[in-house]
Each structure stands twice: as structure tokens, then as C-alpha cells.
Amino acid sequence: MPNHVHIQLHQTEANLSEAMKELFGRFASRQNRKYQRKGHLFGGPYRQAVCLDDIYAMSVSLYIHLNPVRAGLADDPQKYRWSSCALYCREEQPESFLCTGKILGQLSQDHHKAIDLYKKSLFEAMGIEIGEVLEDQEAIHRFQASMAKLPVFKNILRFFIKDASNKDSQKIMSDYDLVRTINELAEKQSIQLPKEKAARRYLIEQLLSRGYTQKEIARRLNISRKTIYNIIKAPLPISGQTGFG
Questions:
Q1: I want to staple 104 with a disulfide (CB 3.0 to 4.6 A). Which of 114, 150, 164, 222 is the partner?
Q2: Helix, strand, coil shares of the chain as percentages rounded to 5?
Q3: How far apart are CA 38 and CA 122, in angstroms?
Q4: Which H or E run contains 108?
Q5: Prediction pTM value
């Protein structure tokens, strides 16, 4: 995009901050040399959102590829020069450092069918108005909810639900449960019980998945940013995931 970039990554190591610093630092140095300029190239630090399930990851991919269309930069998301969208829609995959199989493989094990479903999803989602994710942390969440009402995505959701029944995957909390749990934990002066600590960690992960920054999460939960950092860096408990009834 003209003033920002969206990158969807599959993280295999706990080094995202270092990787982003290296990537954007090298790019800024190159641009400064090329255009004989000095100073900062980017207006601020990067923001991250965690994809906790396959449906959310699919929604993020579609949101990113439709960004140029919503901004009026292209009529067809596949034709925008600075997008990876065309790679997701081609029958013959050119050599690239990008891996489209992670997303397309969620739609179907048949490569041609997966591409067809992805194209249909893009086409049906073009009319969805949801705002800009950089300004509104709920933009992706609203986009996912709108996508669920479209004919092609209903079929995709059936595939995901069937697949999720065979896996230990986290469930994205409803907005009602999210607000209720935030209020419950924010009112507690001290959290000591293992169950409460696990619940708070799970809540933080849910908020991160919606694009909230650590600063915003700390404010909503009435805890420090250092506490947020310590919680998400701590090893997962042996008992595994925590849900809410």
C-alpha cells in the first residue's frame, strides 16, 4: 500500500520482533541510499495480530488482498502490482519465496479447487465495508463475521468446522464472552489461582488475535505492559488450553 504494508507470516521461532527490526531496518537503509535521504522511513513500530485458528487466518489473507480494491488502487485484487494475490489465483505457480500452500491447503487438498474457492471468496467479499485495520482493531473480526454470511464462505466454514473437530484448535471467543471476561479480570485486585492466571493469558491471546497492542491490552485489564510481556513469554501450562463457559 502507499503508506503501509500488511504481511501474513507463519512463525516457527520466537523472534518476530528481531525479524521485523532486521527487515524494515534493511529496507529503510536501502531506500535512504537510493533516494539520498536521511532519517526515519517508517512512522512508528509495527503492530501484530495473532491468528489463533484457520478461519481467522483465511480472513486475514482475504482482507490483505482486498485492501488495494477498498483503497481505490485497483479494480481487480489480482492486478495490483504490490500484492501477492495473483500468486494465490494462478493455476501454474511461478517460483517465489512466498508460500501459498498454507492458506490454499485449508480450502481443499485439490489445488485447482482451492484456487477456485479462493477466487470466489475474493469476488464475494469485494462489497464488504469494514474500515481500516490500522485504525480499528475490530476490522478483521467484522470482516470475518461478514464473510461468514456469504454463500461461498459458508461452504468453507463447513470444511473448517469438520476439520477442527479432529484437531485441538483454539476457539475465537465471542464478543460477549470477551467483554464479560475483560470486566471480570479487570475488577480483580490480585490474580493468584492457576485457573485465573490461565484465563488471563487466554484472554490476552484473544485480544492480540484481534490486533490490540500490548499497551491497549494493559489499559483494558488494569495491568502493566511488563506484566503482559511476562505472561505471553511464559511457557504454556501443562494442562493446555483454557476456555470459558
A1: 114
A2: 55, 0, 45
A3: 39
A4: none
A5: 0.65
Sequence-ordered strand ranges (E) for the chain: none
Measure Cα distances from 180 to 77, 136, 183, 184 in Å: 38, 20, 5, 6
What CATH number has the domain spanning 175-233? 1.10.10
CA distance linking residue 112 with residue 142, whole number of Å? 29
Burial class (CB in 10 A: 0-12, 13-18, 19+), 168: exposed
43: cell is 512512522
- Please state, in angstroms and rounded to a whole number, the distance separating the CA atoms of residues 207 and 210: 5
3-class secondary structure, 6: coil
Q: Is the pLDDT of residue 76 over 90?
A: yes
176-228 pLDDT per residue, tens: 566 677 777 767 767 777 877 887 888 887 777 666 778 888 887 888 888 88
Domain residue extents for the chain: 47-164, 175-233
Rounded CA-CA distance 203/194 in Å is 14
CB under 8 Å to 194, separation ≥6 — which residues?
Answer: 237
As a whole number of angstroms, the distance between CA 118 and CA 86 comes to: 11
d(CA 111, CA 82) in angstroms, rounded, equals 24
